[in-house]
Every structure is written in C-alpha cells, then in structure tokens.
Amino acid sequence: MDGPRKSLGTRIGRWAIVIGFATLLAFPFYWMGITTFKQTSDLFNVEHDPFVFNAPPTLDHLRYLFEETLFLRWFWNTTVAGAAVVAITLLLAVPAAWALARLTGRWGQQLGIGIFLTYLVPPTLLFIPMSRVVGFLGLQDTLWAIIVTYPTFTVPFSIWLLMGFFKAIPRDLEDAALVDGLTRLGAFVKLVIPISLSGILTVVIFSFTLVTQEFVYALTFISSAEHQTIGVGIPIFLVRGDVYYWGSLMAACLIASLPTAVVYNFFLDRFIAGFTVGAVK
Asked: Which of 46, 48, 99, 153 is the most exposed place for a label (fewest CB within 10 A)?
C-alpha cells in the first residue's frame, strides 16, 4: 500500500508544482488582458475588485492606442530592427563560433571567453562612446543606429553559446563528410548547421527578444517618435508626467509580448536544448 500511496502523493505534488508555476507565469497576461478592457473608472476605484470586471468591458484603451499613438509604426520598426539584428548576428556569430570551436589548443577557449566578457559590459557605460560613433557615421535618429549597435552585444553572447554547441558535435562527422567529397564549407553548411538548429534558434530568439526590450540605446540614439521602437515608444508616450494611461499601456504590452510568448511556446524544447547543450557540453 505504501508504494501506490507514495506514487499518488508524488504525482499530486508534481501537479501542484506545475499548476502553481503555470498560474504564476500566466497571471501577468491575465492582468494585462483584464486591464486592457476595463473602464478607467473601474481601474481607479479602490473599492472595486481588481481581478474582475466591475463594469462592462470597453475598447476605449485600444482605440486610444491605435488612433492617438504611433503604436503600429513602433511595432513595425521593432520588427524590422529585430530581423536585421538577427540576420547580422547569425552572419557573424555562426562562422566565428565554429572557427573558435575547431581552433586547436587553448586559444579557441580563451578567445571565446574574451569575446563573451565584452557582453558583460553594461550598456550604461557604453552608450556615450557609442553615441559618438553613431553621430560620426551619420546614423543619429534612424533605425540604422540600433541595427548597427545592437550586434555589439548580441554577437559576443551568441558566439559563446554556439561555441559550446559546436564543440558537442564530434569532429569525426566532419572528417567523414570530407572523405565523402564535401569541402570544409560544404560540411559546415550541410552537416553542422542542421545538427545545430537548436542553438541557432536560441540565438534568433535571444537576439529578437533583446531588440524588443532594450531601452538605453534606443532612447539615446533615436529622438523622433516615428522612428522609435516599442521598448521606448510605449513608456514615453503613454506616461505623461504623473499620468499613466494604464489601459493603453497594458494593451500595448500584451500585444507586444504575445508574439514572443507564442514563439517561445512552439519552440520551447529546442530553446531549452540550445541553452543547456550549448552552455554545458
């Protein structure tokens, strides 16, 4: 009897933990959703229950977001900048990580660690010299300003991550491909990259998410509203002095976060494999 009871207790404990974490992680989305459709009078009345609709739902906050702000333009800017940063990061990080992973001796590991250490430098120390560079290149107040600067911290982390992933691939596989007639580049494209899709996908998600969340560089390099990204446009234009447009703020955050959440959900297994295999093996 002790065995079945212990097994049942273990399953109940596991489900309790899973349900607890799921509730904790889903609550921000519930809070953003209910705040988006609440009337302003319902939001600011302290006597009302904040977890339910005490008045009929409204679309006023969504109308204000789409009609009175440049949210759609910010969303488009973020998408374009994110796609460009992801492309640049993959173009530079993938071959660099492969080369360092295959570099014999300690030089490859030491160079990889040195490159990763540049990722640890906080942006608050670099945005002033970076602004001088951006101004010198004539990119101030354009999307190119962040497209050029963001890879300075996405590439180092991606190289470090992919190095560990490439090292987990036996060199014998590449040697066998060379024996079969492939060139070194052909073996890399047709053999190494397909095996490393989990790590590459991790780099894509990390780089794109960073573009949507970064604030310091976007605020420093871009001043006009039509060129802003979501991470800067939302807090600047929906917080005016001590007035917070909570309904529109939550609507913008919900709309901006849902695509990333969906991508994480669909590719969760590959994302976890990219981080664990690339960082540990």
From this structure: 46
Given a cut of 80, whether residue 119 has pLDDT beyond it is no
String of DSSP letters for the chain:
-HHHHHHHHHHHHHHHHHHHHHHHHHHHHHHHHHHHTS-HHHHH-TTS-TTS-SS----HHHHHHHHHS-HHHHHHHHHHHHHHHHHHHHHHHHHHHHHHHH--SSHHHHHHHHHHHHHTS-HHHHHHHHHHHHHHTT-TTSHHHHHHHTHHHHHHHHHHHHHHHHHTS-HHHHHHHHHTT--HHHHIIIIIHHHTHHHHHHHHHHHHHHHHH--HHHHHH--SGGG--HHHHHHHHSEETTEE-HHHHHHHHHHHHHHHHHHHHHTHHHHHHHHHHHHH-
Long-range CB contacts (< 8 A, 24+ apart) of 16-21?
A: none
Among 82-86, 169-173, 180-184, 185-189, name the most confident range.
82-86
Residue 31 covered by a domain: no
Report CA dihedral (258, 261, 263, 266) to the nearest 10 degrees: -120
Q: Which domain holds residue 115?
A: 69-280
Structural domains counted in the chain: 2
Residues in the chain, how many? 281
Q: What is the mean pLDDT of residues 103-117?
A: 70
- Residue 88 shares a structural domain with residue 185: yes
Kindly state whether residue 42 falls inside one of the protein's structural domains. Answer: no
Q: Tell me if 174 is assigned to some domain.
A: yes
